[in-house]
Amino acid sequence: MIQSKTFEIKRRFICDTIVIGGGTTGIAAAIASARNGACTMLIENCGHLGGNATVVPSWMGFHAPDGSQVVKGIALELLTELQAIGGATPLYPDPICGSMAAINTHWLKIVADKKIRNSGVQLLLHTRFVGVEKDGREISGVYLWGGEGLIYVDCKFVIDCTDTGVVALESGEKMIRGRVSDGKVQVSSWTFEIGNVDFTELAAYFTEYPDDLRPFPLKDAAAHVRTVLAQDAFVMGAFARLVSRAKKDGMLLPRNNMPGVIFPAAGKFVTVASRVENVNPSDSLAYTQAESTGIAQVEIWLNFLKKYVPGFRNCTLSDTYGSIGIRETNHMAGAYTLTADDLLCGRRFDDVIALGGYHLDIHSPDHDGIETRFPAIYMIPYRALLPLNTGNLLVAGRAISATHEAQASTRVIPISMAEGEAAGTAAALCAAAGVSAGNVSMEELQRKLSGAGALINHQQ
425: helix, coil or strand? Predict the structure, then answer.
């Protein structure tokens, strides 16, 4: 049996910073690195940029529930550009999510590609990360696999913006899957879109049953309903009473409500109601089964909507997006592990590089509901992006050093983009100064971030 095979390097590149993962976090990291003078590459496995943001058409987390803005910088810049061409709604206040803007995912792909190319970043699509070449504590090069075969990139700094932290893992960093106690992760969801919704009928239902719009009690649910019915889009966690009725009738539904976003004028509903446990992108067989399980639930929910929910009697399935949406995989064991307590008490850090205020939104692996807690406006320390064993690597996005509970807040798109912007800025500074990630000038990094419009102090 053949144990290994040697591949010839077909192409070589040289850069200062290489960013692995072209989701929104990687986009922010690459742009920040390039803007700060580094020769930068961005690597993405798909044929377009955007990652999970192209399968979940809403961005939440720019604001805390009290209305305080916690994220600006490149994340807000990208949103503003989308809004200018009709590719995104205004940011609407939300009593649970803080704020929400609905995104046209097709425009996101176009604008993100243009923005990356205008920044001078070398982009490689349809290219997979394979491994690293390491010299002591430093990564000297990165191996990729593209259409031509094996690619080698000689680099000074690497930023891991992947869903699983695979670059950190391959570099020798310890990764923790899900909860420390049992390794369980938040459930995943196949996002799908329902069209031909009779919004007038649905609005009448919510007016009669305002408590059925959201999964958590609101102080004045009726007033909330009146407000959101006038918006271009709004968040729901709806139909709990109807789901309960359907389950009593024998219908096997995977959740106790339907979370998602409704678009009144377009008569469409985008939902993440499917529920798939223990999804592991690092296991091809398990990952394939998860995709099959998730898409099979689409038909179940469609039948429920048609039979039980006002306004959906003649609805249609209009989009199933690209792949299952994953909320959690691995967490790096980094220089500092961000905890739920850090978020809930608003712990302050001298090495703050980003803020957050999104609720701890845990799509539980234990039951069919959602667990939530509301934090103070919190700080994310640079050390949560900093590995222990690799001097020229930073991690941003889902795989930062945070617990299962803390990551349930930091994982959302605007906050992850703020982390990416910080990582890209730090990488460029370190590459220019010839120092490791742990020796970056924190004063200069924070000054650069603030000067670029990023928020690192909620009183800014």
Answer: helix
Q: Does 3.50.50.60 match the CATH number of domain 9-66+103-181+329-451?
A: yes
Indicate the pTM of the whole model.
Answer: 0.96
Q: Which run of H or E residues covers position 342?
A: helix 340-344
* Euclidean distance between CA atoms 266 and 171, whole angstroms: 47
pLDDT at 271: 96
Helix axes 284-308, 240-248, angle to 10 degrees: 90
Structure tokens at 140: 């000297």
Q: Are 167 and 160 in contact (CB under 8 A)?
A: yes
Q: Pick from 343, 332, 307, 302: which is nearest to 319 by CA?
A: 302
What are the tens digits of pLDDT across the range 229-256?
999 999 999 999 999 999 999 999 999 9
Determine the Cα–Cα distance for residues 70 and 14; give it in Å rounded to an integer.
36
Contact 79, 57 (CB under 8 A): no
Q: Please, which residues have CB within 8 angstroms of residue 393's CB and are 6 or more apart in sequence?
A: 139, 157, 158, 159, 160, 167, 168, 171, 173, 387, 437
Q: pLDDT tens-digit profile of 291-311? A: 999 999 999 999 999 999 999
Structural tokens at position 213 = 């719009």
Q: How far is CA 274 from CA 62, 270, 296, 323, in A?
A: 26, 12, 9, 12
Q: Which long-range contacts (CB under 8 A, 24 or more apart) does 174-177 make?
A: 174/332, 174/333, 174/388, 175/330, 175/331, 175/332, 175/333, 175/399, 176/330, 176/331, 176/332, 176/333, 177/280, 177/329, 177/330, 177/331
Distance CA 97, CA 100 (A): 7
List the domain boundaries for the chain: 9-66+103-181+329-451, 189-325
Give the Cα-Cα-Cα angle 323, 79, 234 (nearest 5 degrees): 70
Beta bridge partners of 237: 259
Residue holding tokens 């909507």? Answer: 305
Which of 248, 236, 246 has its CA nearest to residue 194? 236
Q: Which residues sit opposite 133 in a β-bridge?
A: 141
Q: Which amino acid is at 344?
A: L
Residue 188 tokens read as 């995943």
